[in-house]
Amino acid sequence: MLSTYAGGPNQVTDKTTASNVQYMRAATKNILYTTSNSWAYDEEHKNGDPAPWKTIFYAVDALIVAAILAGAAMIYLNYRKKSSKNA
């Protein structure tokens, strides 16, 4: 019944039918229950800092990208040096 876009079968047309009201209440309860019991409201995660493993992962990713860019720059400079000797 609920979706991320409006229209079609996802649009509730009759909001007075008891079954539709019950379905909307159940869906609202499920959404609120899931949100309130998720990590978003956990005291441990209120500071907004990422988990330590994520920070390490981001640092390793940055090092890998830096190494790839350095390697590409070395290949380009080596190619340029060789092409200037041949010209």
Q: Summed up, what is this model?
A:
The chain is built from two helices and no strands.
Protein architecture, described:
It contains two helices and no strands. It has 87 residues and is mainly α. The protein has two domains: 47 residues; 38 residues. It is elongated and about 85 Å long. It starts with 17 loop residues before the first helix and ends with a helix. The model has no long low-confidence stretch (mean pLDDT 84).
Give the tags.
2 domains, 87 residues, mainly alpha, 62% helix, single chain, 2 helices
Instruction: Please give the share of residues in helix.
Output: 55-70%
Proportion of residues in extended strands: under 5%
Head-to-tail CA distance between termini:
70 Å
Largest sheet: none
Radius of gyration, Cα only, in angstroms?
Answer: 28 Å
Instruction: Choose one word for the global shape.
Output: elongated
Low-confidence stretches: none
Total separate domains = 2
Q: List how many beta strands DSSP finds.
A: 0
Mean pLDDT: 84
